[in-house]
């Protein structure tokens, strides 16, 4: 169509350039691999997962990584900017970093154990760093592109989960909607992937009785595979041209 914003998939020259926050995480590392296998150049962050980061860098030459504490919004914005510069621009950003709880073990009902500082720390990693990165990346989205954020069933349906985590995941729904409206005119699409309980990763905090309860209500009667979520996120990052402001639940039919 004449005058339409070119989709990332239609970029005339060079591989697509993707920034992934939390590339050392369970979903993040599967997504980095999926994007790299699709021919994209990926720049990702890690914090404590140096070995995982090094494995990814070895497996996918051309990939680049940066260690950063995403609890600091300025650090998050600078990391996004630095990775985009290394890649020579950006076509997609995915935010997979998460702080699941402010206390150990995660407090599901003990609200009194959640400090204001802990609540703010969870929001800093889960929400503020996503906004900071999106803002920091704007000058680098030279041909439009895709932003993929990660919510959770916890932010959409009343399932037992730590309050700061659930509240942060609901905030990401709002961030997705408002960014999608604001950035549409720049040809940037923004969507939220909201997994149910997966076989690994952040769901490790879930007590066994709640996992069993989840399986009773899940239409497909099984936990989600990390690769199933990564494949959807990779499609939204690399192929999507007209879906924006949407939440895609990947929960097996809860
Ligand atoms: N797995 C599930 O069952 C599930 C269910 C629903 C929603 N989700 C959502 O899916 C997304 C990915 O989750 P996941 O399972 O992959 O989580 P995960 O395995 O726990 O990975 C968390 C990632 O966040 C990074 N991170 C945490 N705190 C950080 C900080 N202060 N600074 C920088 N990086 C930090 C970790 O880095 P390091 O390890 O390098 O420190 C790691 O890369 C999240 O948004 C999560 O809420 C997952």
TrEMBL record:
Keywords tagged on the record: Oxidoreductase
This protein's name: Dehydrogenase
UniProt feature coiled coil, ranges: none
Species assigned in the record: Sorangium cellulosum (Polyangium cellulosum)
InterPro entries linked to this entry: NAD(P)-bd_dom_sf, SDR_fam
Domain of life of the source: Bacteria
Gene3D superfamilies registered for this protein in UniProt: NAD(P)-binding Rossmann-like Domain
Pfam families: adh_short_C2
Protein family per UniProt: Belongs to the short-chain dehydrogenases/reductases (SDR) family.
GO molecular function: oxidoreductase activity
